[in-house]
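Q: Can I see a sequence and its folded structure?
A: Here is a first one.
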Amino acid sequence: MQDILGADRTAAARIGDLQCHLDSLRSGLAISRDALTHDPVTGLANKAALLSHLNGIFDDKAAAGTSALLVFRVEQLRKFAESHAAGSDEKTAKRLATIFRQSVKKNDLVARTGPDLFCLLLCDVTREIAAGIARRVADKVAEMPFPFLDRELPAGFLTLTAGVSMTDSATTPVTLYEQADQALAYAAETGIALRIYSAEVAERAGRTYRGGAAA
């Protein structure tokens, strides 16, 4: 009897150890998965997570309706951060992330795809609504001061330039992102705050590509 009870206790202890090991593995996998899909500074989705989310939308575009991808560049942020110690722009990035989060609905997605690039994926919207949201976010950023090291960047120091693309003009998630990026480049080149992807933007992108290839 004592031998049986002892064996049971040993087996129970081993099962407990195995459970702890499994829990540790699950925790490690969750942390690894989070690191692969989220920006480490702001906790926002990264580009990989954004494209993955877009895959779901393109898998059933009819059910999802028309969605808009807004890509914002925070002007001055990268240049200013590069002249200071690494990580000095983190508080500013977190404050910007809060503004973007507060600007969307629960089912929309906010992502950070670069040091000075933020994206909004808006579900079931028109071009007019998407443009209106982009302008409101830009106005809010322009009106706010931002923390940077031991001082604040004054209101108006940081501004946004935005490019917008719509799922009804793209065939894949990558194409949608590229169209928004082309619209962003066009906006920056022409000195305007917002550009929506169009035939004009596509023609400009084609000219740029052909010029680069020729060089």
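Q: Show me another, different protein.
A: A second, unrelated one:
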Amino acid sequence: MTSSFSRRRVLTTGAGAALGASLATSAGAATRSSPRPGPQVAEETRSLDELYRAALAEGGELVVYAGGDTPTQQDATRAAFLAAFPGIKLQLIVDYSKFHDVRVDNQFATGTLVPDLIQLQTLQDFTRWERQGRLLHYKPAGFGSVHDAFKDPRGAWTAIAVIAFSYLYDSAALGSAAPATPQELADPRWKGAIASSYPHDDDAALYLYTLYAQAYGWDWIARLAAQDVQFARGSNSPGVAVNAKQKLIGIGTSGSLTSTAATRWAVADGHPFMAWGQRAAIFKDARHPTAAKLYLNWSLSEARQKAAFNGWSVRTDVTPAGGLKPVWEYPDAHLGGFPEFMADRAGVERWKQTFALYFGEVKGDPSPGWLGLRPGA
């Protein structure tokens, strides 16, 4: 069984965890540097109601750039925020993280910064922007309870959500015949039955495939490449294909171990999956910093963290849902490896081009559409 192991037994550190430690030690080591000294910032003491009133007095506007795959992916977040804080004009604009970050860099270069707050999976951008002095040092309420892996100690950024990537399958169609581990996905019986996001188009999917290559070898990657995998842009695409009954299995996508849906997201003892904290930061030159602080405090509130779709929280004082352990207690999640991997941009490019040799070039328009230089302006 692969989809509910965390409710029944404790994970052990296997070959996949040892691999992750090795990868974390080597990847990105040359790019790390000492953090910039920052001001001593006290944790926010104002309530959400007080911040709400202050945000309205500031003008009641907020622009957030959020990493994601479809224009509607953050609609539930937007609706929940507006229900809690009516009168705030929120623009929550979704695009691939790798487009939002360079979009913001171009806005810095042209003096046209649009977002007040940004939340992305391109973790390396936050340390870079911090070194450049672009980020506001701020500690929202509950900052002290955020796990150390999920925050900058000076308050330059904090993660607001845990996201994890693995594989999923149609449990209604497969039943006990479902693949028990990702290693089984190269079995010829799954030829023509797999959908995947391109690993060389999304860095989280890339890291997952990198862990697979390290754990199972290049022969396994070659056998997977012979499976007639249906690749598409957007990490939502594998779930779309499985939910639509187009494919039985999806690789390189998020999900929840607590879900009872027919499409089952899976991880297996001793086999790699990957997780990270989606980082968020307020820009020092934000036009609406108080509204951005309201959003960040709301995102980190216990109520929001308890409602996380996958049951995992970035906070140490929030018990995970469904009997799960905190995500940092799963060695096979390689939680520390992903930030190191993302910091080594030359290494990332080598992995991308290597997978292109196996799986072909990325094809298709970006799933969020083309948003241009300054969406939300």
